[in-house]
Structures are given as structure tokens and as C-alpha cells.
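Entry 0007
Protein: Methionine ABC transporter ATP-binding protein
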Amino acid sequence: MITLRGVTKRFTGPDGPLTAVDDVDLHVPRGSVQGIIGFSGAGKSTLIRLINLLERPDSGAVEVDGTDLTTVDDAELRRRRGKIGMIFQHFNLLANLTAAQNVELALRIAGVDKAARPARVAEALAVVDLSDKADAYPAKLSGGQKQRVAIARALANEPSVLLCDEPTSAVDPRTTVAVLSYLKEINQRLGITIVLVTHEMNVVRAIADDVAVMAGGKVVEHLRLDGSPLQPETEIARFMLDDRIRLQPRTSEATRVG
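Output (C-alpha cells):
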């Protein structure tokens, strides 16, 4: 469904060129849930934005549903992006629009006929159990409800791929469970391929079939989450699998008072 081959992305920083994604290969089978995990600065958010070409790679191929998106013209890219939904960390809802209007906005931008929009909006809100909040404004919604509106907005265009960039980072643990439950149901019931970026191993454990571990812009390890015991080979993967918090002793210089 999604195949990245030798994908590299560089940015120009104050200290010169920065390689955010470095020669990454990744294959995500149709209908699966792919986790991408790593610490801040590992390149995971840049990687997910390369899948729908919100960031264009400097080199490599980005194939979605058999087509290398780096080779198509702008009109074709816009059409194909319509089948790639995206959920962001901070919801990105417009405060002056109701939940239904926020969902409808995605359809309007995609050029969906006005007469067809109400049914699509209602269906998308029903998937995330927010039909009763259709007329509510974001200020009247909880964090979890806002994220569910964002999920509904991403589903309105009937995507085959759903990209999730830290979708649970702005909500509490209980809401995290609810959001992940909806995403898992969407995957299983609608067959949508999901790619989920996070820095929380418990998130990918709950929902993903496979996790790609990133460090320094590279995918350093893959872990198959099929219920068998995990045996990570890299130090970064072992660290992220360990849920315990260990405080490092502070140096005498750091702890000196006065």
C-alpha cells in the first residue's frame, strides 16, 4: 500500500544542512497499522509528511497505492491526497465553525458537491459517536471530542490511508484509550491503512501491527507486534520499550547550591 525507497529529506538550519530523514526504506501493507516511534528530533514527523508529500523528498520514491507520488503533476497529486487523510497533534479545528462545519470544510476543499456533503458529514461524525455534537463549537468540546472531530474530518473524504501525527499527545491517558479505540475500529471496520507517529511505546503496543524505530533520521529497527515476546536489538528500542522512569544522578556541579 505504502512503500518508501531510499527517501531522504534535508533542511537548511542555522548551522548548515540538516538531514531529517536519511535513506529510509519502509513498506506498509494494505489494511495494516504501522507505528513509527522515536524521540524528539528523530525524524518521524518529517517522515509521515513525506508520505503525502507535504514535504517533498530530496531523493527517493514515495509509492502510495502503486503510484510514485514524486512523479505526478500537481493536479494528480491533489487528487491522490484526497485519499490520504491526516490527523494532527493539536486538532487544528477552526474555532468559529461547529463540529459539522469543520468536517464539511474538508469536503468543500476537496471539491465535493454541496448536495452530497451533509450525508458525508453525518456519516463521519457517526463513526466517532459525535452525532449529538454536530452543532457544538470547539470551545464547548473536550480534548478527546476535539480529536474525534479531527478524525471525522479526516474520514469525510473516504480515505484509503490515514496518517496520524502524535494524535494522543495533547490528551490525557483515559482519552488516549478512547482515541486509539476509534482508530483501531476504523482500521478493522473500514480497512483503512494507518500510519501512526508517536513517542509513546504504549500507544503503538495498543494499536500497531509493526513499529519502525527511528533515530537520527534513520529507521534503525523494526519490531513486529504479533503478541510474541519483543527482543529489540538496538539500545534506542530497548530504552523505549522500558516504561520505567529512571532519574540520572546529577553531577556535583549541577547540584551545588550558592
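Curator remark: The mean pLDDT is 91. The CA atoms of residues 76 and 93 lie 27 Å apart.
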